[in-house]
């Protein structure tokens, strides 16, 4: 039983021998009845004394040993076990292992379900951008999360009616010939999903890799800023074909 509690085989044999003896024993007697090698006996006895499992005394210049009574051993091991459990419960992971792989996802319904789940699980921040029709499907969640105290930043391609504090609206015109449908979501600065159309079907990538998350975050801020610039200085930009052409190449 002691062996199961982390004691070595020799330590267990020494305790068993002493516990079965009516009288204290010296090292020579312990060697004789326990089978522990003589060369190891003093080392093993010393460890058992340190662990409080064996009592030591000197009689007529000879060291004698006796075992801690079994009921006290049970009480001691129980108390130590409970203390270890409490310490384990207090421990917190020193470092979270992050899955930094990039996952691919297909099918519109699956992508939408994944975005909805990530939104619902957001704790501190949300950055979301998409076209108007996709935006409206998640708008109630975005508004509820903002009411809960989550920092929400959003961009809609196409006007939507919303009370979100930080919402940029980009109205495409006939010059946006290369503008493609997309969905981008970054949650808690920790996870991102980007979806786009390819050959008429939705495809997405999802990742917690921090380099990718930072790139998508910059991508989001880039789009918001361009939307704000083109909205505020629309008339000026429309009259400067060269700058407008460059802006249209940058956007999305």
Automatic annotation (TrEMBL):
**UniProt xrefs under InterPro entries:** TrmB-like (IPR051797), Tscrpt_reg_TrmB_N (IPR002831), WH-like_DNA-bd_sf (IPR036388), WH_DNA-bd_sf (IPR036390)
Pfam families with a match to the protein in the record: TrmB
The Transcription regulator TrmB N-terminal domain, residue ranges: 3-69
* SUPFAM superfamilies per record: Winged helix' DNA-binding domain (SSF46785)
Stretch forming the signal peptide: none
The entry's protein name is Transcriptional regulator
The species is Paenibacillus cookii
């Amino acid at each position: 039983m002691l062996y199961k509690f982390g004691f070595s085989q020799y330590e267990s044999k020494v305790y068993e021998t002493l516990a079965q003896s009516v009288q204290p024993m010296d090292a020579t007697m312990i060697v004789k009845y326990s089978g522990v090698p003589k060369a190891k006996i003093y080392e093993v006895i010393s460890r058992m004394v340190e662990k409080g499992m064996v009592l030591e005394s000197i009689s007529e210049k000879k060291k004698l040993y006796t075992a801690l009574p079994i009921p006290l051993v049970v009480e001691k091991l129980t108390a130590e076990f409970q203390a270890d459990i409490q310490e384990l419960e207090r421990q917190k992971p020193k470092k979270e292992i992050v899955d930094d792989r990039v996952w691919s996802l297909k099918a519109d319904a699956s992508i939408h379900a994944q975005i909805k789940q990530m939104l619902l699980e957001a704790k501190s921040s949300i950055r979301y951008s998409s076209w108007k029709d996709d935006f409206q499907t998640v708008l109630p969640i975005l508004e509820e999360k903002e009411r809960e105290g989550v920092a929400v930043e959003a961009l809609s391609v196409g006007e939507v009616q919303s009370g979100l504090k930080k919402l940029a609206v980009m109205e495409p015109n006939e010059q946006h010939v290369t503008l493609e449908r997309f969905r981008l979501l970054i949650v808690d600065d920790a996870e991102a999903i980007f979806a786009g159309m390819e050959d008429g079907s939705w495809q997405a990538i999802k990742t917690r890799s921090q380099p990718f998350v930072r790139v998508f975050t910059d991508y989001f801020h880039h789009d918001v800023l361009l939307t704000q610039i083109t909205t505020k200085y629309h008339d000026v930009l429309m009259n400067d074909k060269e700058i407008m052409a460059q802006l249209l190449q940058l956007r999305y």
